[in-house]
Amino acid sequence: MRQTAAAVVAFGAFLLYRATLLPGFDLGDTASFQTMGGLSKITPRDAYPLYYAISLPVVPFFSNQAYAMNLLSAVEAALACGLIVLAALELSGSLLAGVAAAILFAGSYTFWSQATIAEVYALHLLLVALTLFLVLRWSSEPTFRRLCAFLAAFGLAFGNHLSTILLLPAYTVFVHASAPGGWRSLLSRRVVLAALGFAALGALQYLWNFSSLWREVVPPASLGDGLRTFWFDVTKSDWRETMVLEVPTAEASERLRMYAFDLMQQFGWIPPLLAAAGVVVLARDNWRRAALLLLIFAATIGFAFGYNVGDAHVFFLPSHLVVALLAGVGVAGLQRAAGKRFGALAPIGLAAIGCWNIYVNYPALDRSADERPTAAIAALTEGLSERNALLLTEMSWQLQNGLTYYGQYVRPEVLHAWMPAVLLYAPALIRDNQAIGREIVMTERAAAQIDAAYGPLFQVLPATPPRPLADVVRELPPGSRYVLCVLKPPREFPLDRNDFERAIRQLTGGDAAAMSGDDYVAIAGRAGSAPVFARSAMQPFRDTVRIDGVTIQIRMESWLAFDTIRRMGFGHVIANRHHSLIVERGVSFVALDDDGRPTATAYAAGIFAPQPRYVVLSSK
């Protein structure tokens, strides 16, 4: 029965994630995973050997590599949901509560967003759920065979994400506290050898990464040099040492507010209260299991609070799993207290909350029609091929990764190079390509680098300036419904104030009083008239406005004090339950028809803003 319930939940979750799957490539880390998936060589910098190994037999069956990698995440996330049923059942003793906990987690905002793109977190949560289930199963019947199954899974998990180390203290304490012969029984020869053996097998996954060093054009000078290079790259020491536990103490309260917002975003306010009750119930029934979950929660939260990275919200994911599991324990306690006649109402109620969250989040998390990454890179490379042009780039790493995928799998005829890698010999490169009839095209920052390095040696001029936001607005039919959102732009994408102010005057009929300098700003109405809706705030909000029969929900889904990366966007505009606009940092604009579907969209001062191109007219 339990296996059937887990399979049903896993299949339902897969259908949900499959329906909302990103159809192509994305920008940022996701583009990098999509590029590397299915390749036989991965470097230490690429890391994640288990993640890439799983892709090897799958990717060749698909013509769209990005889609294949996205689909793998959906499968892994769905399997994680099935395992959560089993883990919650072990904790709560109620199959209904286990199913409810899995549904709650399946529809949680961040996990769902990671299940529709190529990322490592779906597999990470699958392995967290697997190891948790196996260690709980061992504690119920502590045989050597079950202990080995747990150790094998835990060792395997290190091949996907090194943050698995955060689980080690909790598992160590739990196994020592639950050993039937006391902690000394774990020092027997066969247990010690099994632990060391499975740890070694887990580490051996990285031989794939390590071996690639010796196939480089310039291999390491010695084994010691290779080991140092491997460790530096696989742990990403160059940036982790400036980010791990580097959130300033003065920002601790802001981080707490961020977590409170994040927790509400995942579940609402009722499941966390049920989780608190679950702690009490579990501590009363089995204090070791309560300590296990609380230690996992504390380690995850402690790391995420101190990790000064632009997507800290994904590192809260294991703590969200703990909340969902404890909520299941909480409703199981209510189920037992209510008796057979009414006991099922509590887990059914939790499942209903999970289903409601899925209903509410579905339009926002549906990326099945999201072609923005492809459109952004296609616009940058329009008209370019190896026959007529060389594109030299220096731009946001997120766009750069997208261009790498696009140039490798979508349009391999686009000849491009990263400017910092060729800057030392750029004069020869430019002249040789011009000599065979290729135009030299550059991004804005690449042109600035050439100018700074070689000054008057080259004549670099704008070729295709980006289309101004004001032009998009001016072409709208009078009276068009619209929503415009402004989220504090990142420093690398400055806002063109003149263009922005012209667009606002055209939209509002000259009424720009609604705009402010707050982090989150949204206005909506009819083009050419005063806004029907205007709101600005320093913290995220959700609001709803109705404009002539179209119900528009404006959702700010990020915490800009810390968030610089949001794969699902920093907010959403939902019109008549259509996903009409993914809001990014900077300016995001959409015009809507009578059904709430977008008729025009535009971005400015962000990663999806049109990129200007420059051309070298001649070499002086």
Describe the structure.
The chain has 620 residues and is an alpha+beta fold. Helix content is 53%, strand content 14%. The protein has 25 helices and 14 strands. The strands form three sheets. The chain has a five-stranded mixed β-sheet with strand order 2-1-3-14-4. Helix 7 packs antiparallel against helix 8. It starts with a helix and ends with a strand.
In percent, how much strand structure appears in the residues?
A: 5-15%
Structural class: alpha+beta
Through-space gap between termini:
78 Å
Percent helix, as a range, is 40-55%
Throw out a few tags for this protein.
3 domains, 620 residues, 5-stranded mixed beta sheet, 5-stranded antiparallel beta sheet, alpha+beta
Topology:
Layout (H helix, E strand, L loop, with lengths): L1 H18 L9 H8 L12 H7 L9 H28 L2 H12 L2 H6 L6 H20 L3 H14 L10 H11 L10 H16 L2 H7 L9 H12 L2 H4 L11 H16 L2 H16 L1 H20 L10 H26 L2 H21 L6 H9 L8 E5 L3 H14 L5 E3 H4 L3 H10 L3 E5 H11 L3 E7 L4 H6 L6 E7 L9 H12 L11 E7 L6 E5 L4 E6 L2 E7 L14 E5 L2 E6 L2 E7 L5 E7 L8 E7 L1
Parallel strand pairs: 1-2, 1-3
Antiparallel strand pairs: 3-14, 4-14, 5-6, 5-12, 6-7, 8-9, 9-10, 10-11, 12-13
